[in-house]
Design a protein that fits this description.
Blueprint: H1 19-28, H2 30-51, H3 57-74, H4 79-83, H5 93-98, H6 100-125, H7 129-135, H8 151-169, H9 173-183, H10 188-195, H11 199-221
Helix pairs in contact: 1-2, 2-3, 2-6, 3-6, 8-11, 9-11, 10-11
Length: 222
């Protein structure tokens, strides 16, 4: 005997008790999966847009999508989360997407949005000559001073800056975040604590990031 089709006032429900069970349901019932995603996205993005009203909606949606993909890929949500407050008849997509799972995705998307905003701010700051020189040193004359400003040198510097930004974007998230924190004047010890590594590894990551950007810029400028 097959289940009767749910009516709009009587949505389908599932007794989900862990991430693996949720993924099975989402694969078996695409309508439920779509409804769950849409409800969670609406819940998370509306909440974030109220908090970050000056931020573009597209960036907030990007943060949500990353949070959702990380959740499905890592499956770190504890089973107790699905069991806490679960209705006796099981979770509907709306209930799950706007309560326990919605709250988890909101926190994850919030962290991702902050990371994206920091990254965008750093990329904007890289437009400054001082920060550009931190990564790819400017050419100097035989006396060790920068060459005189001419239309050609101004154009070349702008072109190098554009190439550098493109090369920074190619770095892994780990290397790029480490480099940005370094440019933001965080100490090696502080960066190490944020990344749960030792300071020597931080130094190695910064050196690797700079070397990759320098090599990438040189190739693009040839």
């Amino acid at each position: 005997m097959t289940d009767a089709m749910p009516t709009p006032s009587e949505p389908k429900r599932y007794a989900i008790d862990n991430v693996a069970a949720l993924i099975r349901v989402m694969h078996a019932d695409r309508a439920y999966a779509l409804a769950l995603r849409n409800k969670a996205e609406q819940h998370v993005t509306l909440t974030l847009r109220r908090k970050y009203y000056r931020t573009s909606p597209e960036l907030i949606v990007d943060a949500f999508n990353t949070a959702l993909m990380n959740f499905l890929r890592a499956g770190t949500f504890r089973p107790e989360g699905f069991l806490s407050g679960r209705p006796a008849e099981g979770w509907s997509a709306k209930e799950l997407g706007t309560t326990v799972l919605g709250g988890y995705l909101y926190r994850s998307a919030h962290r991702e949005l902050i990371r994206l905003l920091r990254q965008r701010q750093h990329e904007d700051n890289l437009e400054d000559d001082d920060r550009f020189g931190e990564i790819v040193p400017e050419a100097t004359s035989a006396t060790g001073t920068p060459p005189p400003e001419t239309p050609e040198t101004i154009y070349e510097r702008k072109e190098r800056r554009q190439h550098m930004l493109a090369c920074v974007a190619k770095l892994s998230d780990t290397l790029r975040d480490t480099l940005f924190w370094y440019l933001d004047d965080y100490s090696y010890a502080h960066i190490a604590k944020m990344q749960n590594i030792n300071p020597q590894t931080v130094k190695s990551r910064i050196a690797e990031a700079r070397n990759r950007v320098i090599e990438c810029v040189r190739k693009r400028m040839v």
